[in-house]
Amino acid sequence: MTILLLLLPFPAAGLLVAAVPPAQLGHALTAAALLQAAGLAAAFVRLRTLPALPAPAP
Amino acid sequence: MTPAPTLLRGIYLPRSADGAAFAMATYGIPLLVLATTGSAALTGLAFALEWVPRIAAFTVAGTLVDRHGTARVFRAACLARALTVLAAAGVLAVLDAGSPAVTATVMLLAASTGILTEFSYVAAETAGGAASRSAGAQAHRVQSVLLGIDQTAMLTGPLVSGLLLEHGGPTAMLGTLAAFSLLATALGSETRNAPTSAAPAQGGLRTGWTTLRSLPALAWLVAGLVVSNTAIALLQAAMPVIVVTELGHSSADAGLIWSAAAAASLLAITAARRAIDRWDLWPVGAAAAALAAGATLAVAQADTYRGYLLLIAVLMAGEGGLTVVLRTLRSHLIPPTSSAAPSP
């Protein structure tokens, strides 16, 4: 399930590139970059407050 | 009775040939579409056409591998991919570039290689997992070799595809891709990994979803990585257009970006494992996330080829670190499954 979820953005990205004029791809990349920064920040802030991530085996 | 093949002959060599074909198909076919059609929109569409069947086939491939065994599915998928690619190379060699028939051929090629590559990948991955379990205490060595094979393929595949396309044209690129597929078919073991009784794929997905919902730490990490993958996927889909059409560089230069990124990712994976041993999961994950997000924000402002090359390498280094964190967390929270059907 995790692998499937992680792969879902790939076809969506292809469709986006198909739909956006080449000159506008930079704006799409900026939006994706901002989304990525917000998403990763939210995930790691949340992970900080959840029960601690398990430490690796010694 | 035929003796069981060695790991090298039964697992590593077929996976190497299939991995080369996988990497060439993934990175080379969008470049081929751009070279033959000159259309950015069709290049994006081909990228989507490669991935939609790949995702759609995911559960089916697992079920088929469980039902028919890894060897049969692997060899059938590799042979079908070789024949499909050879047929496309033949058609492209006789048609005029830019004609509707050429466009239809490369788009069909993208979709068919996507689905067949997924079948061979799932079969190879399942065979590798079974070999790991059979190795007992040496399982980590088997996994290390498999990871090394995959990373080497991802490192060389994009550059080789680009170089072949630039200097030899579609026939050379597709001919090499078909040769790797035929080699994988020939090397595919006949004796390993008999069919197993499989859980229905739908049930596997439902179980995976339930497991994910019950483990908030894993769910948040996966959610973050899905968003992060959106940026990476967009870069991957857009890079042929940006490098070749916008910046005026060659197909080989576009391939080099992802080869350099794979090298950076490989180094980051090695470093992340040691860093997790020393500093634990959260700090390493947060540092990798900051690196990836910062690099993507910088990539979005880049306007030179060298900028894209360096920043995408940094981005993929961060992503490599995040992947190690995810795999480690998943292995701690979820017991391994023996089936090829999708796991949580």
Short description:
The complex is a heterodimer of chains A (58) and B (344). Chain A is mainly alpha-helical and 58 residues long.
Description:
- The complex is a heterodimer of chains A (58) and B (344).
- With 58 residues, chain A is mostly helical.
- Chain A has helices at 2-7, 9-19, 25-49.
- The longest helix of chain A has 25 residues, at 25-49.
- The radius of gyration of chain A is 16 Å and the shape is flat.
- The two termini of chain A are 29 Å apart.
- The model of chain A has no long low-confidence stretch (mean pLDDT 83).
- With 344 residues, chain B is mainly α.
- Chain B folds into 2 domains: 1-198, Growth Hormone, Chain: A (Up-down Bundle); 200-344, no CATH class.
- Residues 338-344 of chain B have low confidence and may be disordered.
- Chain B starts with 6 loop residues before the first helix and ends in an 11-residue tail after the last helix.
- At the A-B interface, helix 1, helix 2 and helix 3 of A face helix 2, helix 6, helix 7, helix 9 and helix 10 of B.
